[in-house]
Amino acid sequence: MMASEFQRTKLRDMFDAFDVNGDGCLEEADSRP
User: Fold this and answer.
1) Buried-most residue among 11, 28, 29, 30 (CB within 10 A)?
2) Residue 20 burial class via C-beta count within 10 angstroms: exposed 0-12, middle 13-18, buried 19 and up
3) Phi, psi angles (nearest 5°) of residue 28
């Protein structure tokens, strides 16, 4: 089952929110306040 455009957009928004430094990778540094 493929994700809908809405689901892909929501996942991208969530990823971008967690990717604090904006480098495209989720790293330990992204989880620190």
Assistant:
1) 30
2) middle
3) -55, -35
Rounded CA gap, 4 and 24, in Å? 22
Task: Report the helix count and the strand count for the chain, using DSSP H and E.
Answer: 1, 0
Tokens representing 21 are 């430094």
pLDDT in tens, 4-29: 999 999 999 999 999 999 999 999 98
- Side-chain-side CA neighbours of 2 within 13 Å: the count stands at 2
